[in-house]
Design brief:
Blueprint lengths: L1 H33 L8 H23 L5 H9 L1 H30 L2 H11 L9 H8 L5
């Protein structure tokens, strides 16, 4: 169990470093390179993209935080928690990571700070999915022998 959690912690921190690096790259390289100008000036496209990004961000955050409480996932975790916890945790981290990437792409495309706020809201979800022994025990119902 400790090996699984150590591996998940490495994946978790590498995703956090990737996100911070991506934000710094966008803010200090691409924005300076473009002079802070938006790639797209189409207001209709920005509205549609922002609406979809908002729905995707809020829905994806809810999905990632409640992932282990879904019926099929919960049943599989009860059957074999040690082998199933790692792939399901990685899927949950990928959900959060991909949504933040979409929001950062929206910021890069339209230079609208609401996309940064969306990515910050979703990135706070990482605090609630940190892989620890207590979280493993509470989410799987696994009792150490």
């Amino acid at each position: 169990m400790n090996e699984i959690l150590d591996r998940l912690k490495k994946i978790y921190w590498s995703m956090i470093v990737l996100l911070v690096g991506l934000v710094l790259l966008i803010e200090f390289f691409f924005m300076d390179l473009m002079g802070g100008a938006a790639i797209s000036d189409d207001a209709n496209l920005e509205f549609v993209f922002q609406s979809l990004a908002t729905l995707l961000s809020l829905g994806g955050l809810f999905l990632a935080l409640r992932y282990f409480k879904m019926g099929t996932i919960e049943r599989q975790l009860l059957d074999d928690p040690l082998s199933k916890y790692q792939p399901f945790s990685i899927v949950r981290l990928i959900i959060l990571e991909s949504i933040v990437h979409i929001d950062l792409f929206g910021y890069l495309l339209f230079v609208n700070s609401s996309f940064l706020w969306l990515s910050l809201i979703v990135a706070t979800g990482f605090f609630f999915v940190y892989p620890s022994k207590e979280r493993f025990l509470s989410e799987t119902g696994y009792a150490e022998k």
